[in-house]
Amino acid sequence: MVMKTLFALSLLLIITAQLTACNTMQGFGKDVQRGGEAIERTAK
Questions:
Q1: pLDDT for residue 11
Q2: 22: which residues sit within 8 A by CB, 6+ positions away?
Q3: What InterPro entries does UniProt report for this protein, alphabetically (predicted)?
């Protein structure tokens, strides 16, 4: 039980840190879009 709770809290912390790094959900969307565009350019 303790391991499940610790895992869930760790996962939540990681996700929160990632979203905070992008400042907003809109920023996160732009980051994902730029990543996709970079992959497309590389594939061409």
A1: 92
A2: 28, 31
A3: Entericidin
- Classify 24 in phi/psi space as left (phi over 0), alpha (psi -120 to 50) or beta: beta
Report pLDDT digits (tens) over 8-21.
999 999 888 877 76
Q: Is 24 helix (H, G, I), strand (E, B) or coil?
A: coil
Q: CA–CA separation, 30 vs 44, rounded Å?
A: 21
User: Please, what's the b/e burial string for 26-36 (b: 16 or more CB within 10 A of its CB; e: otherwise)?
Assistant: eeeeeeeeeee
Structure-token pair, residue 20 = 């905070």
